[in-house]
TrEMBL record, chain A:
It is a multi-pass membrane protein. The chain crosses the membrane at residues 7-28, 57-80, 92-115, 127-148, 186-211, 231-252. This is ABC transporter permease subunit. Pfam families: BPD_transp_1.
From TrEMBL, chain B:
It holds the Pfam family ABC_tran. Residues 4-234 form the ABC transporter domain. The lineage of its organism: Bacteria, Pseudomonadati, Pseudomonadota, Alphaproteobacteria, Hyphomicrobiales. Keywords: ATP-binding, Nucleotide-binding, Transport. This is ABC transporter ATP-binding protein. Signal peptide: none annotated. Gene3D superfamilies: 2.40.50.100, P-loop containing nucleotide triphosphate hydrolases (3.40.50.300). Belongs to the ABC transporter superfamily.
Length: 263, 353
């Protein structure tokens, strides 16, 4: 590699890092200016002490956990079955799981409202529980591309067919195979998908706002419209949560008790 | 008494018939090997016994019970796979205990049985290890213990030694045979390695194009191959084209040399061509070698193979190989030299297609 190519490479890297970190640095710096003349964490203290913050954040965390549970229950058996019995269907399933990336959340939520409103055959929006269920399923759809890919990649690292047959020959039924063989062997991949789902749900605005649920995303928007420093502190907190999730993905992938996947 | 019976088994995948009219009766405690090249249908038959494939026709019974309609997990048939298939998330103990836990056995019973099985494969000291911490041979022994732990009616071994290196293969196949005899479990072993099949089986099924070409004891398969395929697949064999001179007197000619066969020639007429088979170890060129039949030929090549020297000689249009045991004083014949190979006429087998 020539000297100029090396310099160009470093220049591109430095530009990229500045492009990414300078606004973040600015954001963080501004979030510390709540007290006149000195840097302080006053904005963070006010945000964290706000009962609204606690309520909306707790609500979103609970919704994220429910979404993860639904995602695992839907995606793991589906990806397992497609790999085991219907490999021909894989491209179609992949296409389906990619749809939430191209269909805007607002279209999905309007579809839900139209389908499940109080005058429909399944009036989910007519009750708090029903709307919460609808929101959890909506989140599951939004997280589907990430969850499916993570699980499918995990399944690729194990010999699904032979492990299944080995378990069957030892008397195991489908529930035992999924719960005690397949899931524990793709747990790192499932957790990766789970953390991505968590990050998506915590910051999601459209579904929660249009279904009128007290989630963290709409709270972020509301604070942003009315306060000066708190929205910036909240943004930094949201970034920290996302990065924390990414760090956890890296961490759990090291827990797998298997040899490195073969090519 | 027949324990495992395969009656008129057929299997097709779409238009392709993989197994056609396969019949076999296996005694309790017998060790039977399915031997054949890739794609001959041996693994498909094994998978039908296990319940992983549904036969297109025919019935499989174990201890008199029809297996059709039973799922793989309802058959109580243990299986060992080529790829080991140990559960990566479980240690050796839990792998072996899996079948017992699924069957709902009590904890003390599980512990005792797992200990017994690990003792059988001599790996008690590795009970806490995970599969990725074991060698291939150790993994396959654990897989064997796991399959045997729930006391299956039948044990199926699907090329269990194929992924191992040569030395481990020999020791493990002897261990498998020893354990099988110790437990007296009915076992079906699939392999494409003739040496493996010949060395550990009570009976061998040589499979070709989805059907059994010959079923017999190893010595019978080796010494009296029933078809051209069996003759060519099992062991090294000279296939010699001969011309019938006198069908009544069983007289044939190889090149211009006459030979009288012991085996009746059957419905052929003078001038017909017949195929004969002769094992390389059946004849000798040594001075004073025994044998009622002799063929003279010119040496084409001589190869040192370690324990034997294999020499090829031309007799008419055929090239015949024969082996001489290696010894310090052995002088292999030179290329171009004329030698006389002596053997017993009964060693010349007529190959019927």
């Amino acid at each position: 590699m020539s000297v100029w190519a090396r310099i160009a490479g470093w220049a591109a890297l430095i530009f990229g890092l500045l492009y990414f970190f300078v606004p973040l640095g600015g954001l963080f710096e501004f979030s510390l200016r709540a007290r006149r003349g000195v840097y302080s964490f006053d904005a963070y203290a006010r945000v964290l002490a706000d009962p609204q913050f606690q309520a909306t954040f707790t609500y979103s965390v609970v919704m994220a956990l429910v979404t993860i549970a639904i995602g695992i229950l839907i995606v793991v058996p589906t990806a397992f079955w497609v790999r085991l019995k219907m490999p021909w269907a894989r491209p179609y399933v992949e296409f389906l799981t990619l749809l939430p990336l191209v269909i805007p959340a607002i279209v999905i939520v309007f579809g839900y409202i139209r389908l499940y409103n109080t005058s429909s055959w399944l009036p989910l929006t007519g009750s708090t529980l029903g709307t919460n269920i609808l929101l959890a399923f909506g989140y599951t759809i939004l997280a589907l591309p990430y969850m499916y890919r993570a699980v499918d990649t995990g399944l690729r690292t194990i010999d699904v067919a032979t492990l299944t047959e080995a378990a069957q020959s030892l008397g195991a039924g489908w529930a035992t195979i999924l719960g005690r063989i397949i899931l524990p062997n793709v747990i790192a991949a499932v957790l990766s998908g789970a953390f991505l789902t968590f990050a998506i749900v915590i910051g999601e605005f459209t579904l929660a706002a249009l279904l009128d649920r007290p989630a963290f995303g709409p709270y972020l928007q509301r604070i942003g419209a009315n306060k000066a420093y708190e929205p910036f502190a909240l943004s930094v907190i949201a970034f920290a949560i996302t990065w924390g999730c990414l760090a956890l993905i890296q961490l759990v992938s090291r827990f797998q008790k298997t040899a490195p996947a073969k090519a | 008494m027949t324990f495992l019976s395969l009656s008129h088994i057929q299997k097709s995948f779409g238009q392709v018939q993989v197994v056609s009219d396969f019949n076999m009766e296996i005694e309790k405690g017998e060790f039977v090997s399915f031997l054949g090249p890739s794609g001959c249908g041996k693994t498909t038959v094994l998978r039908m016994i296990a319940g992983f494939e549904t036969p297109s026709g025919g019935t499989i019974t174990v201890a008199g019970k029809d297996q059709s309609g039973l799922k793989p997990n309802q058959r109580n048939i243990g299986m060992v796979f080529q790829a080991y298939a140990l559960f990566p998330n479980m240690n050796v103990f839990d792998n072996v205990a899996f079948g017992l836990k699924v069957a709902g056995r009590s904890k003390p019973e599980i512990e005792a049985r797992v200990k017994e099985m690990l003792g059988l494969i001599k790996l008690e000291h590795l009970a806490e290890r995970f599969p990725y911490q074991l060698s291939g041979g150790q993994q396959q022994r654990v897989a064997l213990a796991r399959a045997l732990a729930p006391k299956p009616q039948v044990l199926l071994l699907d090329e269990p030694l194929s992924a191992l290196d040569a030395k481990i293969r020999v020791s493990l196949r002897e261990e498998i045979r020893m354990i099988q005899q110790q437990l007296g479990i009915t076992t079906v072993f699939v392999t494409h390695d003739q040496e493996e099949a010949l060395s550990i089986s009570d009976r061998i099924v040589v499979m070709n194009a989805g059907a059994a070409d010959q079923i017999g004891a190893p010595a019978e398969i080796y010494n009296r191959p029933a078809t051209r395929f069996v003759a060519s697949f099992v062991g090294t064999l000279n296939l010699i084209e001969a011309k019938v001179i006198d069908p009544v007197a069983n007289r044939i000619s190889i090149g211009d040399q006459g030979v009288t066969l012991r085996e009746p020639l059957g419905p052929v007429k003078a001038g017909d061509t017949v195929s004969l088979a002769l094992r390389p170890e059946a004849g000798s060129i040594a001075e004073g070698a025994k044998g009622d039949t002799a063929l003279a030929g010119e040496v084409v090549s001589s190869n040192f193979l370690g324990s034997v020297v294999r020499t090829r000689m031309r007799v008419g249009a055929s090239v015949i190989s024969f082996d001489m045991f290696n010894s310090p004083g052995l002088r292999p014949p030179a290329v171009g030299e004329t030698v006389t190979l002596r053997f017993t006429a009964s060693d010349l087998l007529i190959i019927r297609d």
